[in-house]
Amino acid sequence: MDFKFSPEEEAFRLEVKDWLKSELPPDWGRRGGGEDDNDETFAESKRLRRKLADRGWLTMAWPKEYGGLGATHMQQLVFNEEMSYARAPGPDNGVTMLGPTLMLNGSDELKRQYLPGIAQHEWTWAQGYSEPGSGSDLASLQTRAVEDGDDFVINGSKIWTSSAHRADRIFMLVRTDPDAPKHRGITFLIADMKTPGITIRPIVNMANVHSFNQVFFDNVRVPKSNMVGVQNRGWYTAATLLDFERSGVGRASGSRRTLEDIVAYAKDTKHNGGTLAGDPLVRNELVDRWLETEAGRLISYNVTWMQSKGLVPNKEASAAKLFGSELGQRVAQTGMKIMGMYSQLMPGSKWAPLQGYLSRMYLSSFSGTIAAGTSEIQRNIIATRGLGLPRA
């Protein structure tokens, strides 16, 4: 493994950094609620994504035949690392999930209808996968779609649907054959969020941010022409995403940015005749976290290096996800301890360190070991596929 970047890749890194410096609002990195926090931040995220689209960076991982840049894995890593460090809004799930699915399984009509608009960020997309009784065991989903002429009629609900309250479209999995084995009888559909019968109920998380939603479908009619792939084979359609860069480097890069903020706070805050950074206990904990962010970065680099050599990272990708999500929790906990009681103050308080960013990060970090595959699932993959241990 050689983790040195080529001169071209380093030049691209500088180009991304310069672009971010010129385009991001000065206070962007401290808007702790995320892009769904308020209308102003959401509108700014859309503006930035459209600027990315104009440069070809929004779909840089797409094949050239679909208007992408056909970027190498290492170029994608550089881009994702700098975007995450800047806490900037990058490619959305329309670009990273739906677009590749359409390329592989969509009809020519659906490709013409959606791929150009996705590349230009014309719509905000929601992902309709999880249900109240189907999370990690997604194939047990029960939202029903019944054929009626040229339409499917949908009844059921989806939960933890990010950005559904702002979405123009939703791509979703529905059960079209209730008698089939659970991984079969599932169909992949696209629906307009303005279709009659769709109701959105907000879910406000414990950081007081409205990002999640529950979406209800009451006799919602979706044209059969909006089906992606083959009826009753939607599970396999959803699983066949193109092999774009998925190293998880954003977790390590984001943790490094937060740790730098914590270090700056410790250097600036007086304590026992000196500063917090001079306290041996504080310094030792910060060093531990710094070493961990470097380890997380190298684990992610290894995943990308394997992909660049035509290898398929399996246990390595699980290790990157597991280490990265738990690292985010440890960094947030370290910041909370160093900042003391002030760390509990939320954005809006003049006494809140880092404008309250860390308090929201701490609260949000709890979901990091659940979303995108729980830590338990990742450890099982590492144990069985990596270490060859027997299944229980």
Structural notes for this entry:
This protein is α+β, with helices and mostly antiparallel strands. It has three domains: 7-91, Butyryl-Coa Dehydrogenase, subunit A, domain 1, CATH 1.10.540; 125-239, Butyryl-CoA Dehydrogenase, subunit A, domain 2 (Beta Barrel), CATH 2.40.110; 249-386, Butyryl-CoA Dehydrogenase, subunit A, domain 3 (Up-down Bundle), CATH 1.20.140. The chain contains eleven helices and ten strands. It has helices spanning 7-23, 39-55, 73-85, 93-105, 108-119, 234-239, 249-268, 280-308, 315-339, 357-365, 375-386, and strands at residues 125-128, 144-148, 151-158, 169-175, 186-192, 198-204, 210-223, 227-228, 270-271, 274-275. A four-stranded mixed β-sheet has the order 1-4-5-8. A four-stranded antiparallel β-sheet has the order 2-3-7-6, with no helix packed on it. A hairpin with a 2-residue loop joins β2 (144-148) and β3. α1 (7-23) runs parallel beside α3 (73-85), α4 runs antiparallel to α5 (108-119) and α7 packs antiparallel against α8. It is globular and about 80 Å long. The mean pLDDT is 91.
Features of this protein?
alpha+beta, 11 helices, four-stranded antiparallel beta sheet, 10 strands, Butyryl-CoA Dehydrogenase, subunit A, domain 3, about 400 residues, Butyryl-CoA Dehydrogenase, subunit A, domain 2, Butyryl-Coa Dehydrogenase, subunit A, domain 1, 3 domains, four-stranded mixed beta sheet
What is shown here, in short?
Helices cover 44% and strands 15% of the residues. The chain is an alpha+beta fold.
